[in-house]
Design a protein that fits this description.
single chain; mainly alpha; 2 domains; 5 helices; Transposase
Length: about 90
């Protein structure tokens, strides 16, 4: 039997796949609800992951920049990128 963490990872994979196909968050959640029932993640969580996978979440962009640690002074690069995206 799958653990709750395994189930969450599977559901995120489904969201990533269907978002790449162009499905809306509402459609993805409705389809997942029929498969996972009570174990399905919330509509709000589906919308959040769809935004992240489509690259529309600015917080995710900042996280990618922070994790890249670009240049000798990563904090300066991060400040510059925040100004550019603001």
């Amino acid at each position: 039997m799958a653990t709750s963490n395994d189930l969450l990872i599977k559901q995120r994979s489904v969201i990533e796949f269907l978002a790449a196909e162009g499905c809306s968050a509402a459609n993805i959640h409705a389809r997942m609800k029929t498969v996972y029932g009570e174990m399905c993640i919330s509509d709000c969580a589906v919308r959040k992951w769809v935004r992240i996978f489509k690259g529309e979440d600015p917080r995710e962009t900042v996280l990618r920049i922070e994790s890249a640690r670009v240049g000798p002074f990563p904090h300066r690069s991060l400040l510059i990128m925040r100004k550019l995206t603001a």
